[in-house]
Design goal:
- The structure is a single chain.
- The protein has a single domain, classed as EF-hand (Recoverin, domain 1).
- It contains 7 helices and 2 strands, in the order ααβααααβα.
- The radius of gyration is 15 Å and the shape is globular.
- It starts with a helix and ends in a 6-residue tail after the last helix.
Length: 148
Amino acid sequence: MKGPYVAALALLLLSGAVHAQGNARGAAHVAKMFRESDTNRDGVITQAEARAAAAREFRTHDLDGDGLLSHAEIRKMQLDAGASQLPRALQTTVIDAAFAYFDVDGDRRITPANVQHTQVQLLLQADFDQDGQVTLQEARQLHGLGGP
Protein backbone atom coordinates (compact mmCIF):
# COMPACT_ATOMS: atom_id res chain seq x y z
CA MET A 1 0.00 0.00 0.00
CA LYS A 2 1.31 3.44 -0.91
CA GLY A 3 1.96 5.88 1.92
CA PRO A 4 -0.44 8.79 2.29
CA TYR A 5 2.28 11.25 1.29
CA VAL A 6 2.94 9.50 -2.03
CA ALA A 7 -0.79 9.21 -2.75
CA ALA A 8 -1.40 12.87 -1.92
CA LEU A 9 1.59 13.96 -3.98
CA ALA A 10 0.49 11.81 -6.89
CA LEU A 11 -3.04 13.23 -6.79
CA LEU A 12 -1.66 16.73 -6.93
CA LEU A 13 0.79 15.86 -9.66
CA LEU A 14 -1.67 13.84 -11.71
CA SER A 15 -3.89 16.88 -11.89
CA GLY A 16 -1.02 18.89 -13.37
CA ALA A 17 -3.31 20.52 -15.88
CA VAL A 18 -5.42 21.91 -13.05
CA HIS A 19 -2.51 23.34 -11.09
CA ALA A 20 -0.30 24.41 -13.98
CA GLN A 21 -3.08 26.16 -15.86
CA GLY A 22 -4.66 28.14 -13.04
CA ASN A 23 -8.16 28.05 -11.62
CA ALA A 24 -10.16 29.02 -14.72
CA ARG A 25 -8.50 26.54 -17.05
CA GLY A 26 -8.22 24.00 -14.25
CA ALA A 27 -11.94 24.24 -13.56
CA ALA A 28 -12.64 23.78 -17.27
CA HIS A 29 -10.35 20.72 -17.33
CA VAL A 30 -12.12 19.16 -14.32
CA ALA A 31 -15.53 19.87 -15.89
CA LYS A 32 -14.42 18.28 -19.18
CA MET A 33 -13.08 15.18 -17.44
CA PHE A 34 -16.29 14.96 -15.40
CA ARG A 35 -18.48 15.17 -18.52
CA GLU A 36 -16.42 12.48 -20.23
CA SER A 37 -16.76 10.17 -17.22
CA ASP A 38 -20.47 10.79 -16.54
CA THR A 39 -21.57 8.76 -19.54
CA ASN A 40 -25.26 8.54 -18.61
CA ARG A 41 -25.41 12.30 -17.91
CA ASP A 42 -27.09 11.97 -14.52
CA GLY A 43 -24.73 14.44 -12.82
CA VAL A 44 -22.72 11.89 -10.85
CA ILE A 45 -19.84 9.50 -11.53
CA THR A 46 -20.28 5.99 -10.18
CA GLN A 47 -17.65 3.30 -9.68
CA ALA A 48 -18.79 1.63 -12.91
CA GLU A 49 -18.36 4.90 -14.81
CA ALA A 50 -14.94 5.42 -13.20
CA ARG A 51 -13.84 1.96 -14.34
CA ALA A 52 -15.11 2.61 -17.87
CA ALA A 53 -13.33 5.99 -17.95
CA ALA A 54 -10.14 4.29 -16.78
CA ALA A 55 -10.39 1.76 -19.61
CA ARG A 56 -10.82 4.57 -22.15
CA GLU A 57 -7.90 6.53 -20.69
CA PHE A 58 -5.73 3.43 -20.70
CA ARG A 59 -6.41 2.83 -24.39
CA THR A 60 -5.66 6.49 -25.15
CA HIS A 61 -2.28 6.42 -23.40
CA ASP A 62 -1.16 2.91 -24.43
CA LEU A 63 0.51 4.32 -27.52
CA ASP A 64 2.20 1.10 -28.63
CA GLY A 65 -0.90 -1.03 -27.95
CA ASP A 66 0.96 -3.63 -25.88
CA GLY A 67 -1.61 -3.65 -23.06
CA LEU A 68 0.77 -1.95 -20.60
CA LEU A 69 1.65 1.65 -19.85
CA SER A 70 5.40 2.15 -19.99
CA HIS A 71 7.37 4.80 -18.16
CA ALA A 72 7.69 6.64 -21.51
CA GLU A 73 3.90 6.57 -22.00
CA ILE A 74 3.33 7.89 -18.47
CA ARG A 75 5.94 10.58 -19.15
CA LYS A 76 4.08 11.71 -22.28
CA MET A 77 0.75 11.64 -20.44
CA GLN A 78 2.13 13.84 -17.64
CA LEU A 79 3.88 16.27 -19.96
CA ASP A 80 0.67 16.63 -21.98
CA ALA A 81 -1.30 17.17 -18.75
CA GLY A 82 0.78 20.17 -17.75
CA ALA A 83 3.98 18.82 -16.20
CA SER A 84 5.85 20.37 -19.13
CA GLN A 85 5.25 23.74 -17.43
CA LEU A 86 7.36 22.65 -14.46
CA PRO A 87 11.15 22.86 -14.10
CA ARG A 88 12.84 19.80 -15.62
CA ALA A 89 13.97 18.40 -12.24
CA LEU A 90 10.41 18.58 -10.94
CA GLN A 91 9.10 16.98 -14.14
CA THR A 92 11.09 13.85 -13.30
CA THR A 93 9.59 13.78 -9.81
CA VAL A 94 6.08 14.21 -11.21
CA ILE A 95 6.53 11.46 -13.79
CA ASP A 96 8.08 9.03 -11.31
CA ALA A 97 5.30 9.74 -8.77
CA ALA A 98 2.63 9.19 -11.42
CA PHE A 99 4.18 5.88 -12.43
CA ALA A 100 4.35 4.77 -8.78
CA TYR A 101 0.76 5.89 -8.22
CA PHE A 102 -0.55 3.73 -11.07
CA ASP A 103 1.77 0.79 -10.30
CA VAL A 104 -0.44 -0.30 -7.39
CA ASP A 105 1.14 -3.73 -7.03
CA GLY A 106 4.74 -2.54 -7.40
CA ASP A 107 5.61 -4.86 -10.29
CA ARG A 108 6.82 -1.99 -12.56
CA ARG A 109 3.99 -2.80 -15.01
CA ILE A 110 0.88 -0.68 -15.36
CA THR A 111 -2.05 -2.75 -16.55
CA PRO A 112 -5.66 -1.76 -17.28
CA ALA A 113 -6.58 -3.23 -13.87
CA ASN A 114 -4.04 -0.94 -12.17
CA VAL A 115 -5.53 2.12 -13.84
CA GLN A 116 -9.07 1.05 -12.98
CA HIS A 117 -8.03 0.53 -9.36
CA THR A 118 -6.53 4.03 -9.13
CA GLN A 119 -9.62 5.58 -10.77
CA VAL A 120 -11.93 3.92 -8.24
CA GLN A 121 -9.65 4.97 -5.36
CA LEU A 122 -9.69 8.54 -6.66
CA LEU A 123 -13.47 8.38 -6.89
CA LEU A 124 -13.66 7.21 -3.27
CA GLN A 125 -11.38 10.06 -2.17
CA ALA A 126 -13.56 12.59 -3.98
CA ASP A 127 -16.77 11.16 -2.51
CA PHE A 128 -16.85 13.62 0.38
CA ASP A 129 -20.45 12.85 1.36
CA GLN A 130 -19.78 9.10 1.09
CA ASP A 131 -22.85 8.31 -1.01
CA GLY A 132 -20.95 6.08 -3.44
CA GLN A 133 -20.81 8.58 -6.29
CA VAL A 134 -19.09 11.86 -7.11
CA THR A 135 -20.70 15.11 -8.19
CA LEU A 136 -18.95 17.83 -10.19
CA GLN A 137 -18.73 19.90 -7.01
CA GLU A 138 -16.92 17.06 -5.22
CA ALA A 139 -14.53 16.69 -8.17
CA ARG A 140 -13.84 20.42 -8.04
CA GLN A 141 -13.29 20.22 -4.28
CA LEU A 142 -10.80 17.37 -4.68
CA HIS A 143 -8.75 19.53 -7.04
CA GLY A 144 -8.83 22.55 -4.72
CA LEU A 145 -11.29 24.48 -6.87
CA GLY A 146 -13.93 25.15 -4.26
CA GLY A 147 -15.72 23.36 -1.52
CA PRO A 148 -19.33 22.65 -0.70
